[in-house]
Design goal:
heterodimer, A: mainly alpha, B: alpha+beta, 8 helices
Chain lengths: 172, 317
């Protein structure tokens, strides 16, 4: 129960940071670090897949509600949630990661943490920009935006994690 | 039966994925205008209040740039007035550029809010303007009322981009009013709450603007195709009209939201697609949507009258 409250609070804070701060700081007017995705990516591995997907859909929808761009982020988060259980099974559990709590940088180490998060970010960013454009003729542009989006998201996520969340965990 | 249920339970993740994807795509493709409108006006008030507070510091640090921008505009107005005094006034007034600046600076400006540095008419504020920019008999600028506003929220990264301004129904803002910034057209008012309003900017996938080229009797439709936020496309300009790179694109007289002659952008490329008789013109927009801080809301006083007439024609047909 305490964990549930903690994760909900963490995701709410990320959403507020996203809506009130990061959305106003779009890089080149095109790319914003969608930091809220990071909150989803590091939710506990033990969470049932269907619950995680429902949670991700609702979370994406909340962001859509703030930006009045209905469906875009809900869809991108649903894609992320669909892929994550397979990715966790294939990558994390194979490497004997058995922490029941949220995914932590200090348990995984930098290399494995990055290898885990990058594909999830990439799926989110690509599906988001693809469904925004809905045109195969713009694939090169979509790839470019996704790549830039993943890099920025990664930098911001790690910065945020090591500043707040990471320090709290390492102090335990 | 049990085995079917068991199977469905086993593939519940896939079912949920398909279900949520369909819901998302459904929302993405179309929204219920009524619920959308009701929900948006509530959100506008909430977001506007929060962003207004957060933007106070931004406005403070941006004062120097804002002052420079105002000064620049004043210089342009002075230059135009000087030219106006020297040259044949009737000939000059017919130029779209003059009309646009007359329109921007002679309209009655809302002074409801004393915190706005743009809340006074430049015609009365400037000692240089001994003769105020009074509309000429042929000028239609008196049909338009300008309300100064500050941008408190802005998005440029989505397919549907909006701005939130610190003016609402209390200040006389109504849906469908045009919005122009210091450099040109910005967008159209969408939702209005008591203290705030949202703007569908020109970089919104559904925004359409009636626009034409300077000194050419051709009007087309300008829209944004996504991607770069300083690029738009102008279509429906007939192929017999000479178009060249660098030509300025202005709002047209057909618009019910903008006065004619508000600058929109500059022609950066043009071509006639195969099998068509109209241009497809790439336009570089003048407005920098990332940095615009102060805008004017434009109230076309005769819009209702024109709409009624157009409705009557449609009914008669």
């Amino acid at each position: 129960m305490i964990d549930l409250i903690r994760y909900t609070a963490w995701l709410s804070v990320l959403m507020l940071v996203q809506v009130l701060l990061l959305d106003q700081m779009a890089l080149l007017g095109l790319i914003s670090p969608y930091i809220y995705v990071f909150g989803l990516a590091i939710l506990p591995v033990g969470l049932p897949s269907w619950l995680f997907m429902t949670f991700a859909f609702g979370y994406g929808l909340t962001y859509d509600a703030f930006t009045a761009n209905w469906g875009y982020h809900a869809l991108a988060c649903t894609f992320l949630a669909y892929i994550r259980p397979t990715w966790v099974r294939w990558y994390l559990l194979k490497s004997r990661y058995d922490d029941p709590g949220s995914i932590r940088l200090n348990s995984l180490g930098w290399a494995r943490f990055l290898t885990y998060t990058i594909p999830l970010f990439a799926i989110h960013q690509f599906s988001l920009y693809f469904f925004e454009a809905l045109a195969f003729s713009e694939l090169h542009w979509i790839f470019l935006r996704s790549l830039a989006g993943v890099l920025i998201l990664l930098l911001c996520s790690l910065g945020l994690y090591t500043t707040f969340y990471g320090s709290a965990h390492t102090s335990k | 039966m049990w085995s079917i249920l068991n199977y469905l339970y086993r593939i519940r993740l896939h079912i949920l994925f398909v279900l949520y994807s369909i819901i998302s795509l459904g929302m993405l493709v179309g929204n219920d205008p009524y619920h959308y409108s009701r929900w948006r006006s509530t959100m506008v008030e909430l977001q506007g209040n929060t962003l207004n507070q957060l933007n106070t510091w931004r406005s403070y640090w941006g004062l120097r740039a804002a002052n420079e921008e105002l000064n620049e505009q004043l210089a342009i107005a002075r230059t135009r007035l000087y030219q106006d005094q020297l040259a044949d006034s009737a000939a000059l007034v017919s130029l779209p550029q003059i009309r646009s600046f007359d329109s921007l600076f002679t309209g009655s400006v809302s002074t409801n809010n004393p915190d706005s540095m743009q809340s006074q008419s430049l015609a009365t504020a400037s000692p240089f303007l001994k003769t105020p920019l009074i509309p000429k008999a042929s000028d239609s600028s008196s049909e338009y009322k300008f309300i100064a506003a500050r941008v408190v929220g802005n998005s440029t990264i989505h397919r549907h981009n909006y701005m939130i301004l610190n003016r609402g129904s209390r200040d006389g803002v109504k849906p469908r009013m045009g919005v122009a910034g210091p450099k040109g057209a910005v967008g159209i008012v969408d939702q209005v709450s008591e203290h705030f309003c949202t703007i569908i900017t020109l970089i919104h996938a559904k925004a359409r603007l009636s626009a034409g080229l300077a000194k050419k009797d051709a009007v087309g439709t300008l829209f944004w195709e996504g991607g770069m936020i300083n690029r738009a496309t102008l279509i429906d300009i007939p192929m017999h009209v000479p178009v060249k790179k660098g030509d300025t694109v202005y709002t047209s007289a057909y618009s019910l939201t903008f006065p004619p002659g508000i600058p929109v952008g500059r022609v950066r490329s043009h071509r006639i697609p195969d099998g068509e008789s109209v241009y497809r013109i790439g336009v570089e927009l003048f407005t920098d949507f990332r940095s615009v801080q102060y805008v004017h809301l434009i109230d076309y006083k005769k819009r209702e009258e024109r709409l009624r007439l157009e409705d009557k024609i449609a009914t008669d047909d």
